[in-house]
Write a structure and sequence with these properties.
Shape: elongated
Order of helices and strands: EEH
Number of strands: 2
Strand order of the largest sheet: 1-2
Length: 93
């Protein structure tokens, strides 16, 4: 299990159509309905991740183990040599 798991900000969720295989116009949408739970697969074991980035990624095959090294590198903190994964963002040009 990873040390880090991302979740949705309060008031947001995946589209109501995405868990059913639909492709909605908007990938993310405000949750305006009463919501106390969900039956969509949001567990990292069941669902492959999708990374949305406004910058080019340095890897073609990103994985959840890459999130911690990416965060460390982004903030200029050295990535320990024994840490799994690698930084996903290309060095600033």
């Amino acid at each position: 299990m990873p040390d880090l798991q991302l979740a949705f900000r309060d008031g947001y969720r995946t589209s109501w159509r995405t868990p059913l295989g639909g492709i909605p116009k908007d990938l993310l949408e405000p949750n305006l309905k009463k919501w106390s739970g969900d039956h969509a697969a949001s567990d990292v074991v069941d669902t492959p991740g999708v990374i949305l980035a406004s910058r080019s990624l340095a890897a073609a095959d990103p994985a959840i183990v890459d999130l911690a090294p990416t965060a460390l590198a982004f903030f200029g903190v050295p990535v320990p040599a024994d840490m799994e994964g690698h930084a996903l963002l290309a060095a600033p040009q």
